[in-house]
Amino acid sequence: MCALGLRELPPWLKSYRRANLKEDLEGKDLVIETTAGPIFIQIKSSAEECFRFRQKPRNFIYDVVLIKSVEDLEAIRTDLLNRAERLYRMLWREMRKMKKSA
């Protein structure tokens, strides 16, 4: 079983890891490698922190996850995976558009 609590990763999700120091300083907490490219998750503990993070322009595909408590790990895992899949689909569509226009 993987750390996300799944028996196996979805086919589009190649790997994931905690951000290194450089990535963390750029606003990335979780790095998810997908078949369409990398996506990033920023984890915040308050709605105000989420709002402030979203106000700054970013040059990478990301989402912000609000985690107030770690009591329900299953809900956190599900939320992370759902957000990652949504970002993956967005990135995949962009890749297809670029290939068609090339």
Question: Tags for this entry?
Answer:
globular, 102 residues, 4 strands, single chain, four-stranded mixed beta sheet, alpha+beta, 42% helix
Summarize the structure.
The chain is 42% helix and 24% strand.
Describe this structure in words.
This protein is of the alpha+beta class and 102 residues long. The protein has one domain. The chain is 42% helix and 24% strand. The chain is built from 3 helices and 4 strands; from the N terminus they run βαββαβα. A 4-stranded mixed beta sheet has the order 1-2-3-4.
Question: Which SSEs are present, and which pair or pack?
Answer:
Blueprint: E1 13-18, H1 21-25, E2 30-34, E3 37-44, H2 47-55, E4 62-66, H3 73-101
The tally of structural domains comes to 1
Strand content: 15-25%
Biggest sheet architecture: 4 strands, mixed
In order across it, which strands form the biggest sheet?
1-2-3-4
Structural class: alpha+beta
Radius of gyration from the CA trace?
Answer: 14 Å
Give the SSE order as H and E letters. EHEEHEH
Shape: globular
User: How much is the average pLDDT?
Assistant: 84
Structure summary, number of beta strands: 4
Helix content: 40-55%
User: What is the first-to-last residue Cα distance?
Assistant: 40 Å
Low-confidence stretches: none
**Helical region count?**
3
